[in-house]
Amino acid sequence: MSELDLDTIRYALKTAREHGLRSVRIQSGESSFRAVLGKGRRAPAPKVSAVIEVSDGPEEGLAEVTSNLVGYYREGEIPLHVGSVVRSGDVVGVITALGLANDIECSVEGEIVEVCVEPGQAVEFGQVLAKVKPS
Known about the structure:
Distance between the termini: 43 Å
Largest sheet: 4 strands, antiparallel
Structural class: mainly beta
Number of helices: 1
Number of domains: 2
CATH class of the largest domain: Mainly Beta
CATH architecture of the largest domain: Beta Barrel
Number of strands: 10
Helix content: under 10%
CATH superfamily of the largest domain: RNA polymerase II/Efflux pump adaptor protein, barrel-sandwich hybrid domain
Order of helices and strands: HEEEEEEEEEE
Shape: elongated
Strand order of the largest sheet: 3-10-8-5
Oligomer: single chain
């Protein structure tokens, strides 16, 4: 896409409002669009549903499945559940950013021992989604 079309801009604005964002910036080639949304209703602060311990690295012997971008997590073809067995290349989640769905593929085979996200949760780049005990 070399230019931004009106439908893309409308969809980005709708998505930003749904998720309580205050500004939108889109760029495609030489075209760009930026908007600051009004002082409308702010999205409620997310409820804390888990405590995440910060460590220097992955636990001994566990592999981490991480987000490769910023967006909202939803379950993939194989939902993340403790005890589930995953294979390398399995789509274990989808990150939605500005309405675009991006698959998260597992890079290791093994058993899921911890799930660190819930469907609909906002995630950051590099955030751990699950921990896997390699087989």
